[in-house]
Design goal:
By secondary structure, this protein is α/β, with parallel strands linked by helices. The chain has 2 domains: 158 residues, Rossmann fold (3-Layer(aba) Sandwich), CATH 3.40.50; 134 residues, Rossmann fold (3-Layer(aba) Sandwich), CATH 3.40.50. It has 8 helices and 16 strands. The strands form 4 sheets. The protein has a 6-stranded parallel sheet, sandwiched between helices. It is elongated.
Length: 297
Amino acid sequence: MSLLYALPGNAAFARALCRHTGWQRGQLELHRFPDGESLLRLATPPRGVVAMTCSLQRPDAKLFALLAAAATARELGATQVGLVAPYLAYMRQDARFRPGEAISARVIGNLLGSGFDWVVTVDPHLHRIHDLAEVFACRTTVVQAAPELAAWIRANVRSPLLVGPDGESAQWVEAVADRLGAPCVVARKQRRGDRDVSVRLPSLARWRGHTPVLLDDIAASGHTLIDTARGVREQLPQASPVAVVVHGLLGRRSREALRGAGIARLVTTNTVPGELAAIDVSARVAQALAILGADAA
């Protein structure tokens, strides 16, 4: 029987994975000391193939516990230790843009790749890196969210026009548009800082009567989506844009700012838990987990 342990905050996704796969939940305890250090305990003895599930938003506070869980499982008898990270952090810094900068994608790939035998994730932010195998020292499986995104849009949006806020979003926009048989456009973005971006859209005049669906893989500050929404509203003032995001890292103020920019509805997948997580990708992740577990058995 394969075991799946959930790091704090990941219990709901772990329950869904176990329901889909038949894996057994392992019990994990994490205690935080007053000085900020942690004590991790695998209350269910590990055996055979085990996996940890942990979505890596705000990753710095999670990485020690995650690596400690993997090392402890291996020490106590697990034959293989895998990681299910629905959201995989640190993939956006995939090059050295200024002298001396860390290439974070390579750092996280080496760190997790040395601690785990395999990693499953959903739509990592790959731009100049085209395959996780380029930076990970272990086997990796990438789950595509496009089928679930398309299904949600089909069920909830009339006559969608898919809008990508920048060239990096084109891969998701085109994949979803193809599944829907819907038109799509991609904007050009200029970024001057974390919260200073400008977006230029092509003409949308031929798409009057369609509902703009802003689609991106990651939303953190929300400024890219806000600028895109304003550009859409300038060209299509009667439209009520919808925003669909794979990984929602938005705080309360960012969500309020998006609504203030005229976005009628904002939804994300459940790779990151939260009130916006209306699109469930757990079944597709479970398929990948089941295959890896069977191969390792």
